[in-house]
Amino acid sequence: MATLEIKNLHARVAEDDGEQILRGVDLEVKSGEIHALMGPNGSGKSTTSKIIAGHPAYEVTEGEILLHLEDDDFGDLDIPDDVRTWNLLELEPNERAALGIFLGFQYPAEIEGVTMTNFLRTALNAKIDEREELLFGEDEEAEEEEAGYDTSPMEGNVDDGEVGVAEFQKLLKEKMELLDMDEKFMQRYLNAGFSGGEKKQNEVLQAAILEPSIAVLDEIDSGLDIDRLQDVSKGINALRDEQGTGILQITHYQRILEYVEPDHVHIMLDGKVVKSGDASLASDLEDKGYDWVREEVYEAA
Amino acid sequence: MSSDQDHLKETDTEARFEFKKEQKAAFAAEKGLNEETIRVISEDKDEPEWMLERRLRALKQFQKMPMPTDWPGQPDLSEVDVDEIVPYIRPDVEVRGGVDDWRDLPDDIKDTFDKLGIPEAEKNALSGVGAQYESEVVYQNMQERWEEKGVVFMNMDQAVQEHEDIVKEYFMTKCVPPSDNKFAALHGAIWSGGSFVYVPEDTTVDMPVQAYFRMNSEGMGQFEHTLIVAEKGSEVHYIEGCSAPKYSAFNLHSGGVEVFVGEDAHVQYSTVQNWSKNTYNLNTKRAIVEKNGRMEWISGSMGSKATMLYPASILKGRGASDNHITIAFAGEGQNIDTGAKVYHNAPETKSTIESKSISKDGGRTNYRGLVHIANGAKNSSTSVECDALMFDNESTSDTMPYMEINESTVDVAHEATVGKIGDEDVFYLQSRGLDDDDAKQMIVSGFIEPITEELPIEYAVELNRLVELEMEGSLG
């Protein structure tokens, strides 16, 4: 179990006179829960997701993002007591990923020349290495230096604890079957030439491989037809049910929430979470739009 | 020796490229270039009179021709002082002409190649490796089954003796004459070593033929000559790798490559070069392609202070084709000026050029290309694609694709893209657990993938590792 805690988060675009986008966001997501974060365009939903993952384009001006780790977060690891709570704002994006944060992108990058298999195995091993270094302070590089290279370029450097090619293929096959993905995917280049639906499915696959504690999925439902929406939703539910991942589902529409049923729904307006409730809040939005929330909030103020 | 061995095990990849051997030379020509030096080299090699004459003619050409200075954006060659170069060094070992068993090589030379991973390539049952150390080929191996078919792969010096008629016909006569450019003339005067490959009619050599060149001494030049003659209907893939450790004085590498692609023949010439950052790499490489023949140039240019290299194909016969894939990487203080030249001199000829360059830390890459379509080369087509990837705002990349089209019924396409490594791409990979360096490296290795996929696995791994080292800035 892990808990992501966002407290009074203020942020702006990281350039001279950058626009203030977040004005005090509060949110708490625990492993195993599904949260929907809804709101009109420009309310700050995507910005929130990017800041959680550590995007350099934004500057946090106030508030904090904490990640609390429970002992059983990483299976067989005993996490030392003194490193159970992390301030994500002090960490690099890859360090956040290593501690179990995952961001599913609305528009994932296309990387030519890098096969899916190569990418995913590299990412998984990088994550495992970094996690050990963060939690136990082991300096991987020093270890590598000690081990040295074999003289043969074919054999590469000696490194135990890596997920080997065969082991990884097996893992990948399992996960892809789970998501009904075609094996042909694996020899394709990362997102290059993927359809919108394939890209979204690929984001979910990556979360299934990397097994994060908390996955923030940024409008993963946009541009999907109904069949693909169901596939992607099935994958998201599996993340929660099989891996206990906590999901922060960012969306405009209630549609995906018919398939991925949220435990909590939050509404963002003008850089703040202004209202939270259960799944019924999403249906209210569907019926009445955002205006009534706006009215309610500003009347109260 | 044993402490040396222990050390060897512990060194990392960087050291594999950087280290240099204390090598006692048996014979080194005097610094600088004059007729006397040429005579000494030729005599030491026991060459026939006609070769000495060609050398001396080339020397006269060299002395007459001016240094290239007026090309737009060309690398600065003012430091290249031929009087400071030792043009010829023969290693002090009894291996002249090459040994054919790896075990017969002296330990120190074996060590050098061991560090470079060459024996591994050999162990992996490749068809042949010729290794040049300084100016001489010290190791050469060709599988017997090719020899039985009449395929020849040997040291160029040896070929002058043993295949005099072929060499006399083709050596710097029709393809790269010394008058071509100043460095071709220099090469013609003081060339030494290199590879000779002869493939008889209708013979397919289905494993790559490989050579490895290494420049180990300070302030020397390396001027190996490669001559490939592929007769009608034959097929061969030749691969060369080159490297030089770092020294304080400058080095000059001025190789010459001549390829003759017969009718319906197919030659692939692949090279991965990694020169030390004080090397001037000024080469002339050219192929003449007969009717329906196919020439492929695959090259990765790493290292060097300045490189000027434009492999050329002359499509002489109807239906001849050419394919160029080049990649250049320039870091701090480096200027890699490379590209391709294709002359469409017959109808229905076809060429494709794909050039990729990477620059970082103020490095400079140029693509300099020339596609010439002669009057009468009807229904020919060419496609040129240049992609440049830059790491920062200090690095530069220029594209100079000259096209001379003298025929109207042709198909010409040119496309160029220049991009900085995208922050969003890097962030995407970082969010998946890769650190900043690894993310950039992954993007670069994807960028050069079209090259690596064309190479045998050992070279692909080596190229990727070289890029990795360049990106870390740890390669000297």
UniProtKB/TrEMBL annotation, chain A:
Picking any one GO molecular function of the record gives: ATP binding
Does the keyword section mention ATP-binding? yes
Query: Is Protein transport given among the entry's keywords?
Result: no
Q: Which residues form the ABC transporter domain?
A: 4-295
Top-level division of the source organism's lineage: Archaea
Q: Which PANTHER family match?
A: ABC TRANSPORTER I FAMILY MEMBER 6, CHLOROPLASTIC (PTHR43204)
**What name is this protein filed under?**
ABC transporter ATP-binding protein
Biological classification of the source: Archaea, Methanobacteriati, Methanobacteriota, Stenosarchaea group, Halobacteria
From TrEMBL, chain B:
In this chain the SUF system FeS cluster assembly SufBD core domain maps to 213-447
Q: Name one Pfam family in it.
A: SUFBD_core
Q: Which SUPFAM superfamilies match?
A: Stabilizer of iron transporter SufD (SSF101960)
Q: Tell me which InterPro entries the record gives.
A: Fe-S_cluster_assembly_SufBD, SUF_FeS_clus_asmbl_SufB, SUF_FeS_clus_asmbl_SufBD_core, SUF_FeS_clus_asmbl_SufBD_sf, SufBD_N
Which GO biological process entries does UniProt record here?
iron-sulfur cluster assembly
Family (UniProt): Belongs to the iron-sulfur cluster assembly SufBD family.
Name used for this protein in its record: ABC-type transport system involved in Fe-S cluster assembly, permease protein I
Name the gene for this chain.
sufB
